[in-house]
Specification:
Elements (H helix, E strand, L loop, with lengths): L3 H19 L1 H4 L5 H21 L4 H35 L2
Helix pairs in contact: 1-3, 3-4
Length: 94
């Protein structure tokens, strides 16, 4: 059964993805922005798989959805560590 909130989250996520593509030149100025954009894209895939799982192959897409959330979370953690490392390296020379 399709849940309305899952569809809304996927639609909002797609809208944000379009915004990211349109504003890529500005967003690319964020340190390690490629990692951060990858995190968002992986979470977006998870949200899309959430909707798909209610239509077909529930167990498979549920597994893929949660795998996306795990990978996205670890990549987000990696991004935070990279920022901290960059800040520490910058402070070392001041």
């Amino acid at each position: 059964m399709i849940k309305e909130n899952e569809i809304i989250v996927a639609i909002i996520g797609i809208g944000i993805f379009v915004f990211l593509v349109i504003n890529y030149s500005k967003i690319s100025k964020i340190p390690e922005s490629k990692i951060l954009i990858s995190v968002f894209f992986i979470f977006l895939l998870g949200w899309i798989f959430t909707v798909i799982e209610s239509l077909v192959l529930e167990s498979l897409f549920n597994l893929i959805e949660h795998f996306c959330y795990i990978i996205g979370s670890f990549l987000l953690l990696f991004w935070v560590f990279k920022l901290k490392q960059k800040r520490d390296d910058d402070n070392e020379f001041n």
